[in-house]
Amino acid sequence: RQCGGFTSSQRKVSKMKVSVLALLATLSTSAAFAPAAFRAPVNVEAPSHKDRKATIVNDGKANAIRDRIKSVNNTRKITMAMKLVAAAKVRRAQDAVVATRPFSETLQSVFGGLITRLGGEAVDLPLLTKRDINKVTLVVITGDRGLCGGYNAQMIKRAEARMAELKEAGIEYELVLIGKKGESYFKRREAPIAFSQDCGQNPSAKDANAISEKLLASYLAGETDTIELLYTKFVNLISSAPSTRTLVPLSASDIAGEEDEIFQLTSSSGEFSVEKTTAEAAEPQEFPNDMIFEQDPTQILNAILPLYINGQILRTMQESVASELAARMNAMQSASDNARDLSKRLSTEYNRARQAAVTQEILEIVSGASALE
User: Fold this and answer.
1) How far apart are CA 318 and CA 326, in angstroms?
2) Which of 129, 181, 341, 354 pairs with 295 at a CA distance of 20 to 30 A?
3) What pLDDT digit, counting tens, does each position of 283-332 carry?
4) What span, in angstroms and rounded, lies between the C-alpha atoms of 225 and 248?
5) Which of 127, 125, 123 is nearest to 226 (CA)?
6) Per 3-state DSSP, what percentage of the chain is helix, strand, and coil (rounded to 5)?
7) Which of 148, 227, 265, 305 is catalytic?
8) CA-to-CA distance for 230 and 313, rounded, in angstroms?
9) What distance in Å separates the CA atoms of residue 5 and residue 173, rounded to the nearest whole number?
10) Active-site residue, 199 included
11) What is the pLDDT of residues 146-164, one digit of tens each?
C-alpha cells in the first residue's frame, strides 16, 4: 500500500535506521562517561616519568598565570646577565685605577721632594693661593644610565644640598656636569651650567684632560674662586658614599701626604667580594743639595700641578664609575631575587588553579556517569 509516495515497508526501514543511529549515539556517550574499569583495555604504552608533561589546563586564569611565569623567568635571566656584565666592567675599572697608580706615586714623590727642597720659602703659585670666595664651581659626577639603584639620586641630592648652602650664604655658583643623568636633571630646572660632558663606562686620561683644561682656564682667568668635586666614593660592593673635595686651590701639605686606597674585586664561594688595600703616601724624592735645576723649582711645580689635577679628576671619575657599576650589580641582584620569589608564588598559584580545574572536570565526569545510571 502506498501513502504519500512511500510504501509502508520503506517507512519501517527508515524508522529502523533512526533507531540504530540513536542507539549508537547513546552507547558512545555512555562509553565516554563510563569508568575505566568497564572499558575495553587498550594496549597503549604509558609514557615514562621523564617524558610526562604537565597537564595543560584550558582555563583563562591559569593560562594568564603561566604566561606571566614565563615572562618573569625571562626577566630574571636578563637581570642576571646585566649583573655579570657589571661585574666584568668593575674589574676593568679596577685595572685602570691600578695602571694609573705608578704615575700618581711618581708625581707625588717629585712634588714632595720639590717642596722639601724649597724649604720654608714662600711658594707663590696661582693654584696654591687661596682667594676670597665669591663664586664656586661645582663639578658633579653622575652616571650616563639608570638601573643602578639610588646612585644617581644620591649624587643629585648631595649637589642640591651644596647649592642650597651656597645660596643661603650669598655665594654665586655654577655647575660642571659630568654624566647624562645629572645633565638632564639640572637642565630641566634651569640651573647655571658652565658646560657638561658624558662620563662613559671607561673614562680615559684624554677625557679628564679636556675637563681639567676648561676648569683651570676658568680659575686662572678669575672667573671662579674655588672648584669643588662632588663624586661617589667607593666603599664596598654594598655601599658607596657621596663625597666632596676641594680641587682648586690646592694644599701643598695635602698633596705630599695624601694616601690612596685600592679596591680589588674577587670571588669567594661563588659570591663577589672586595679586597681593600691602603697605599701609603709616596716618600718625597731626595734631590742632592748640589743639584742644579735647569728651570726654577717653582716653575717645575707650576707645571706639575695641572698634571696632578688631571690625575685627580681621572681618579674620581674612575671611582664614580666603579661605584655606579657596584650599585648596578646590587640592583640587578635584588631584581633577580625578587623575580625568583615572584616566580615561586606564581607557580604555587598556577598549581592551585590547575588542581581546581582538574577537580572540576572529575566532578563533571562523575556527575555525567551518575546521570546515566
Assistant:
1) 12
2) 129
3) 666 666 666 767 777 787 788 888 888 888 888 888 888 888 888 988 99
4) 8
5) 127
6) 60, 15, 25
7) 148
8) 11
9) 111
10) no
11) 888 889 999 999 999 999 9
